[in-house]
Specification:
The protein is built from 9 helices and 10 strands. The chain is an alpha/beta fold. The protein has 2 domains: 163 residues, 3-Layer(aba) Sandwich (Rossmann fold); 65 residues. Bound molecules: adenosine-5'-triphosphate (ATP) and magnesium ion.
Length: 252
Amino acid sequence: MPNSVDPVISAEKVGKHYGHFRVLQDCSFEVKNSEVVVICGPSGSGKSTLIKCLNGLEGFDEGRIVVDGVSVGDPQVNLTKLRSRVGMVFQQFELFPHLTVEGNVMLAQRRVLGRSTAEARERARMLLDRVGLLEHSAKYPKMLSGGQQQRVAIARGLAMDPKVMLFDEPTSALDPEMIGEVLDVMVNLAKAGMTMVCVTHEMGFARHVGSKVLFMDQGRIVETGAPESFFKNTQSERAQRFLKNILHPMGI
Ligand SMILES: Nc1ncnc2c1ncn2[C@@H]1O[C@H](COP(=O)(O)OP(=O)(O)OP(=O)(O)O)[C@@H](O)[C@H]1O
Ligand SMILES: [Mg+2]
């Protein structure tokens, strides 16, 4: 059994290839209880691949990943059980179009956790209220805005009472005006003590609630630091260039 002081996630020298292409190399980091780790870096640097390795959505061929005491690369691992402990929110929401909002938040609770319909509904409604969407419970995803759909996806992840939540660019498919409502939910989660790993280029979020920032380039974690020092005292030339581009995309 994991000890309460053990990291929730520990990745040691993780490597992965697609044929001859090294998509991840020597990636090591830890996420402790209630930490919010922000992963950023240029397109194609391996951020999505790394975060998907954490819940077994992608395999890896070198190193070791332990999540909540479970060795993810172990062939014996029960991936369904692992994924119920690790919530994941994607860029494109990935809600079930044929289920209502409430149905989306109830499904895995019943199928994976074996909760009764009444229990799953009660939990779904509590979480939909928490993300500000209780009045939309009976609607179908296509009737909601992108920001609302993403908040449903967060509620669905939380419904499994996860140990950690993973976010892969949760706001990058949203209209600018909807980014704030999703970030607000994420900030509240962070403040409530949820352990989170977020691939995001929302540097305000990183500064405000991040415990540390990992900067990736070409499959490697090239820089790790507390947000304050990462932004003020960026070490690598690549990270400096990256930050300059995202903070001042037109050079002004
Ligand atoms: N199934 C695959 N087969 C071969 N190459 C892949 C596969 N999936 C991803 N890649 C390559 O691996 C690299 C890392 O991809 P990944 O999606 O992890 O990057 P990313 O940092 O998340 O990029 P983005 O910011 O654009 O989302 C890219 O060069 C990508 O083309
Ligand atoms: Mg990606």
